[in-house]
């Protein structure tokens, strides 16, 4: 059965997980991720997925159990948000270093403090340098599509890394919109069987996993992780093409939206891209030459593709839904590095921290050249 | 250690197989005591083999043959757990 269904992002990802039918899901609930795992747990309880759900006592344990399961040869998924990802962070680095192909749904939520439950990207950015793949969805449909693709990306022999499929907390996780699911048999054929390419926990071929590495080897292992995530770019492109043949929906590391002939372009991650697209359409209808570059793959960061997409744009404004107190916010820093030497004007704004809305009027002002350092902030904001 | 390896030739995630691991002798220091075995008393229960924290108990198949002093640290656990007093700790 195909056709559109009304689903939240959380429900859409729960359906993707049902179709993937992972062997093991160690997980701990946290808002706004909870509907993902709640929906999936119901599928398991109803016998619609054969997964062993491990109800662990914390996110630190969730990722620790996920590593063990993944290295034992089980297709493994989990999910978290915010403080959960922060508590898990130590083990996220270890999962990447042990090359454990774990898929994790992230409902992006601001990090404390002050404690908050609403969306920003500070939780994802906390594990920016951990070596995990990070894909950001614009809407529930994209969260579903990316989740379906994620196990094959994680498990590809050239990659073997955790893959985080990030969706904006509440804005996507809890908002119902039309989503098209692939028929179960088509989805399952696409995902395929899981075969770990290096039999890790095999009593017939014993190995030491996660060994100590002194100064004579740590650096080499870190570089190996770097090469693996760089390799994820080509695998993502291939899988996106294969999935597009089934869904008719284009996916990739980035999306060029009406950049052709654009003088000014915004760069954004996540659901904000949807707001920007509407404003771009309005302004284009009014004759303004504006566009959007939406990033799906934040890690690996497609620097060359970003530079190529923005090659003819005169003015670029990068929107960051996370700040870096005392330094450049993360997306702006990446885009600046990618565009270094290009000669285009580069500005950026932080916006939307702790769930603050970004209104179409804000986007209009940004595209008209009014670029405060902080959009929607009460009190003095510096203008770039 | 042997020759250092390029990052391109390391196993993914650093999974080490015993075949590739150097068997570095670590028995250069001990507590000052070492186990001495009396095979005539041994009933081959292999408790010493189970308990030894350094895998220093040597076997011939499933038969106790003694202690590999290249790995023994002299902790005395084997002598403690032996039910037949077939192992005694003696000063080096």
CATH level 1 name of the domain at 28-91 in chain B? Alpha Beta
Biggest interface and residues each = A-B, 24 and 16 residues
Q: Report on the biggest sheet of chain B.
A: 2 strands, antiparallel
Coarse structural class of chain B: alpha+beta
The secondary-structure class of chain A comes to alpha/beta
Order of helices and strands of chain A: EHEHEHEHEHEHEEHHEEHEEHEHEH
Low-confidence stretches of chain B: none
Q: What's the count of strands of chain B?
A: 4
Count the strands of chain A?
Answer: 14
What is the CATH C level class of the largest domain in chain A, in words? Alpha Beta
- Give the strand line-up of the largest sheet of chain B: 1-4
Helix proportion range of chain B: 10-25%
CATH fold name of the largest domain in chain A, please? Rossmann fold
- Could you say what the CATH architecture of the largest domain in chain A is? 3-Layer(aba) Sandwich
Rg of chain A to the nearest angstrom?
20 Å
Cross-sheet strand order for the largest sheet of chain A = 4-5-7-6-12
What's the architecture of the domain at 28-91 in chain B, going by CATH? 2-Layer Sandwich
* Fraction of residues in β-strands of chain A: 15-25%
Q: What oligomeric state is this?
A: heterodimer
Binned, the helix content of chain A reads 25-40%
